[in-house]
Automatic annotation (TrEMBL):
CDD domains: PP2Cc. It comes from Usitatibacter rugosus. The gene is prpC_1. Its EC number is 3.1.3.16. Residues 8-255 form the PPM-type phosphatase domain. PROSITE patterns: PPM_2. Keywords: Hydrolase. GO terms for molecular function: protein serine/threonine phosphatase activity. This is Protein phosphatase PrpC. SMART domains: PP2C_SIG, PP2Cc. The keyword Hydrolase applies. The keyword Hydrolase applies. PANTHER family: PROTEIN PHOSPHATASE 1L, PROTEIN PHOSPHATASE 2C.
């Protein structure tokens, strides 16, 4: 089954109830299984410049480089390695562009953005992230936070300085330790995961995860996964109902069936009848 047929998708971004403009940005390329979310930061409107540059440069760059590599002719392990390599390269390219823009334009000084990238292919997903925007996965009725925040709060949790209960009340929620475009070089965290039919993946900015607790997110995913458009609307509404203190973005991908790539005799058979 083709990627657009196997992956149900919906996305929504909203300024929230406090901010007067939206510094989140989302991009998708369903035809190649690519989804990108960024949450910008910076003075004036520079945050939305950074997030817009990040999502468009990475989406366009990955789409171009992925398609010209003729990936279907590679072995599955080679495809995994290539997906990581190309994703890292395009993130580096976007980082350089954002950093250079911030250095050359006073109104953009200090701008940066968090980032989550998902590239689905051949029953696996390559995940890259920077900062505290997140990827969740629902498998069965168990929800897992796939990404680990690059934040001061997460470092305090990891070191045992605070408890998870104290973290919910912390004033340090928005202090990230890694962001795209702040420094000349950045190191994204990259992993490849096997996917399964009926998996549900949620990319979101902290405007959602800070406003809606994980259990409510989990129950919403379970209840509405067959209707992605309604699901993202419900999540954004819940964040706004709880205060909407930040911009809110959600991207939902529901794996409805396997999307493996034919190889060997099956690939030759299909190619013969094209």
């Amino acid at each position: 089954m083709s990627l657009p047929e196997a992956l149900l998708f919906a996305a929504l971004t909203d300024p929230g109830r406090v901010r007067d403009h939206n510094e989140d940005c989302i991009e998708s390329r369903p035809e190649i299984g690519l989804y990108v979310l960024a949450d910008g930061m910076g003075g004036y409107n520079a945050g939305e410049v950074a997030s817009g540059m990040a999502t468009s440069l990475i989406a366009d760059g990955l789409q171009e480089t992925w398609q010209i590599k003729d990936v279907d002719k590679l072995g599955r392990g080679e495809a995994m390695g290539l997906s990581e390599k190309l994703t890292k390269e395009q993130i580096g390219r976007a980082n350089t562009a954002i950093f250079t823009t911030s250095q050359n334009n006073p109104e953009c000084a200090g701008m940066g953005t968090t980032l989550v990238v998902c590239l689905f292919y051949d029953n696996f997903v390559t995940v890259a992230h920077i900062g505290d925007s997140r990827l969740y996965r629902l498998r069965g009725e168990q929800m897992e936070q796939v990404t680990r925040d690059h934040s001061l709060l997460q470092e305090q949790l990891d070191s045992g300085l605070i408890t998870p209960e104290e973290a919910k009340l912390s004033q340090n929620k928005n202090l990230v330790t890694r962001a795209l475009g702040i420094d000349p070089m950045v190191e994204p965290e990259l992993h490849v995961y096997e996917t399964q039919p009926d998996d549900v993946y949620l990319l979101c900015s902290d405007g959602l995860s800070d406003m809606v607790d994980d259990e409510e997110i989990r129950l919403t995913l379970i209840t509405l996964k067959s209707n992605p458009s309604l699901l993202v609307q419900q999540l954004v509404q819940a964040a706004n109902d709880n205060g909407g203190r930040d911009n809110i973005s959600a991207m939902l991908i529901h794996v409805t069936s396997p999307y493996g790539v034919p190889r060997g005799w099956l690939a030759r058979f299909k190619a013969f009848f094209r």
